[in-house]
Amino acid sequence: MNVIECNRLTKAYGGAKALNNLSFKLEENKIIGLIGRNGAGKTTLLKIIAGFMKETSGEIQVLAEKPFNNLTVSANVIFIHDQMNLPTALNLKEILQAAARFYENWDDELANRLFDYFSFNSSQHYQGLSKGMKSTFHMILGLSARCSLTLFDEPTTGMDAAVRKDFYRALLKDYIAHPRTIIISSHHLNEIEDLLEDILLIKDGKEYLHLPVADLKEWAIGLQGKTAVVDEWTQNQEVIFTKSIGIDQSYVVVRNHFSEADWQTARTAGVVLTPVTSSDLCVYLTSKTTGGIDDVFN
Amino acid sequence: MMSLTKVRLTDVVKKQYAYKLKAYIQVFTTLIALQLLAIFFSLNGVGSMGSSSESLEMDVHYYSADIVVFFTMLWSFIIAILITTKAYRNDDFVFVTNRVSSNLSNALFLLTASVIGGVTAIMSSYLMKVIMYFFVDAQYLNGTSIMAAPMEWLLGIFSTTCYVFLLGALGYWVGTLIQINKAFALLLPALFFGAFIVEGTGTAKLVSTVYDFIFTESSILLFIVKIIVIAGLLFSSSMVFSNRMEVKQ
Q1: Rounded distance, CA B193 to CA A208, Å?
Q2: CA atoms of A157 and A187, how far apart (whole Å)
Q3: How far is B79 from chain A (nearest CA, A)?
Q4: Is residue A103 within 8 Å of residue A111, measured between CB atoms?
Q5: Interval A204-221: pLDDT, tens
Q6: Interface ipTM
Q7: Per-residue b/e over B81-105, b at no fewer than 16 CB within 10 Å?
């Protein structure tokens, strides 16, 4: 079963289209990375999935229902983001108790253990927390709710490195114990790529790539060597990124269509072939120009 | 696949209602403060008359909880607007909700707040009597007591609650309109005061018609029907208006 199905989903704010004919399908029980630059439409997409917003046109089905104003979707989806409105009159423990009453699969034990582990205090109030602590508290809500579909929008904002690591580990452990669909949008792809099974890359409100992380690692290849030689090799290839290094040297990233034999000949011609990390590749793919920021200065 | 949780609207509304009684507790602190202030204002009496002859001087002061009731109605209007604001509205969306359940639980919350407001407003007259007994030098003449007229007393509480709830419904409606478009924040007060000005010129009797319709009904049954219909219309139209509203942070 597909957890989410989008067909030509469009969301316009005034004239600007945050999502533009986005179509994709997400399978259940996977951890999916939603990757894109600032303003690519990640948050808008998550808000539509959570039923916070209504699409301008196109179709979306979440858990086989339309998400907007839908109680079933609301009960089975939790959307964690860094601008959550939590009640100011309740202390942290009371907020957890309130959440426990609303979410049927809520795991009280997990919530309390995480609460103690991250040394929260029962009598603390949400608005008194630091940014990182707020994110940590959101994470406790998101994991303990055990919703069939869990959405994390930039969950690690403000967290320090140690807490981020703890979070990823907690997420993975809980996912293994209770498989469900989890979508994480993050800028730190290098940190989360080991967690992810699939990556959904969006650019300018459109689906750009949707494939397993393992495939993404072999999706492209970097060639480095003398400019003339590299240019020869990258002719008629799908160039993703170019950068000149020093005098007469350049680094070019292309779609990986090379065969084993090609690799050998390239090496003998003095071209160094290197794999491209997923996070670098995503940066290259989502940038507006093939030369990146360098183009501004050229 | 984890099996999907199926929820019923009534269950969600119940949960939200219980949650709101707890999370919105501050509004009752405001109520107490406002009512105490109103009692303080009332200690001067709401009306008085006096007469004197050569050897005798007499002052009669009327005391009542009218100011307290008025303040309570105002309170109800304001908290109703308050709970339509973004901070409160978006609170619901942290947990399980849709717009219908959110509106229904808000209406239930306002109804509860109105009962509490109505009861405390009427009860405040006893606090006033106690304060006056100690601090105001006056000869106590007459007053209504529960024992003398229990039905009147209950009726007082009931009708006060109804008025407080009506104002709450109105505030909720106004607040919802303002959330849909900020222009209503200017438009509605303009219409309100405009109606008074038109009334003053004598060309139309809008304000007095509305006032008579709601506040001078002598049949209790008709009064209940009027309140239910008006509040129902206000809440249901608020619900229709807000049903397509998006959650924006």
Answers
A1: 56
A2: 10
A3: 15
A4: no
A5: 888 888 999 888 888 898
A6: 0.85
A7: bbbbeeebbbbbbbbbbbbbbbbbb
